[in-house]
Each structure stands twice: as structure tokens, then as C-alpha cells.
Amino acid sequence: MSPTFLNDLQAELLECAERLSATDRRSLSVNYKADGSPVTSADLDYQAGFMMSVQKYFGDDVEFICEELESIQPDSDIKCFIDPIDGTENFMAGLPIWGCSISLWDVNEPIYSIIIFPDLKFYQSSLHRIERKFRSELVGLPSRILGVDVSEIFGEGGSRILGSLVYNCSCVFSGSLSRYTNPGGAYVWDFAAIVHLARINGYHTYINNIVSVSIPCGLRGPVEFKILRNY
To answer: What is the CATH number of domain 3-125?
Structure first.
């Protein structure tokens, strides 16, 4: 795949995310899913925007597997996993810890992935190695952990609940967290990009306690997902 081709796609995705960051969050329409989590008009609008950018470079023969959409083109080998806003409640509240996740795969082989944090003005993508800056022992945990035995996943250095899976995983890449564990509420659009970025940067990802360097065929979720620092 041409680096120029992917750089152009990345530039468009970053521009789309920047527009999302500028959205007036007080004027959003909000609905609630069966599990009580919110979905806003921005989720739907910018999911469509990311899809249009991908289709511009990959054409219509792409299966989109997204948080707010039924699967499109399910017979295609090219899969695109999109979570337009991971951490919607943070986004709605004006907290900067939320992210956009886009990941393209050819069956079990990754093509390109990016996680974007528009309010924080940074991103991590498969086009560049990710620098580890810290060596924290903190553990990241998901927001919804009621009824889950977390005794085995708290680290010696303590834990943090940040409200966004992709941001937690980004902190593992940077070294601000030693690991992140979601005991059973993660979906494939949440972590497809993380599996790819971990694979090329030497981190370990697990899906239902099985080491995973690709996305199992037909997987949607919810599943247990975790990422560990490579010591």
C-alpha cells in the first residue's frame, strides 16, 4: 500500500476529527441505547464523515463495522472498523479524554489504523512508531465495572478510570499506564486499531484471554480485552 496514499487518507481523517472537536456540544441531540450509553448526533454525523473518507480511497467494496451502524458489504475482504467517539459521555461533558478510532484490515492482515484525540491535539497511527515516554505501574480500568471482580486486575501502583478505551490504550503505548483491562464490555470497533498498533509496537493484546495479533473472523463483542506493556 502506497505511503502517499495512506498519508492522504490520514490527513482527511485528521481534518474530520478536528471539525468534530469544534462541534457545539450543547446543541447535540442525544439518544440512549439499551445499555444506557448515549449516542449523539455527532457520533452519527462523523461516523458518516470517516466512512466517506475511507470510501474515497478504497471505493465502495469495504465492509464497515461500526458502533452506530449495521454491517455494510459483509462479503468484502476489506474491513473498516470505526468508533467515531469513544468516550461519548466525556465528549458531551466537555472533558477532553475521548477519541476517534479507525482501522482497516484485509481479512486478518492490518492495512492502516489511527486513534485520534482531537481535544488533546494528538494522534497515534500505524504510519509511525509510538514513543514510550514513561514507565508507570498504574492500571487502566473501564468506567462500567459494577458487578465485576476487579481484585486481580488492580496493579500495585494503583488504578485509574479515564472513560475511554482508546485513551487508556494510548496511555499504555506512552507508558503512562502499564496495562488496561476491560473485563467484558469491549467491542471490535473499540479495539481493532489497538490490536494493530500493539502488533507493530511490540505490545501484547488479549481477546477473551487469548493472545491476539489479528481480529477473529465475525467477532463483534462484547468480549474481555486487555493490553499489556512489553517489559
So the answer is: 3.30.540.10
- What topology does CATH give the domain 139-228? D-Maltodextrin-Binding Protein; domain 2 (3.40.190)
- The residue whose grid cell reads 468534530 is 20
d(CA 178, CA 226): 11
Find the farthest-apart pair of alpha carbons in the chain and give their distance in angstroms, rounded.
Answer: 48
SS3 198: helix
pTM exceeding the 0.85 threshold for the entire prediction: yes
Helix and strand counts by DSSP (H, E) for the chain: 5, 14
Asked if 63 and 72 touch (Cβ cutoff 8 Å), the reply is yes
Calpha distance 29→174 (Å, rounded): 34
Query: What's the start-to-end Cα distance of the chain, in Å?
Result: 31
> What region, left, alpha or beta, does residue 160 occupy, with left being phi > 0 and alpha being psi -120 to 50 degrees?
beta
pLDDT digits (tens, 9 = 90+) for 58-84: 999 899 999 877 666 667 899 999 999
For residues 82-114, one letter each, b for 16 or more C-beta atoms within 10 angstroms of the residue's C-beta and e for the rest, the string is: bbbbbbbebbbeeebbbbbbbbbbeeeebbbbb
CA 2 → CA 30, 61, 65, distances in Å? 39, 19, 24
Domain ranges of the chain: 3-125, 139-228
How many other C-beta atoms can be found within 10 angstroms of the C-beta atom of residue 62?
19
User: What is the chain's alpha carbon radius of gyration, rounded to the nearest angstrom?
Assistant: 17
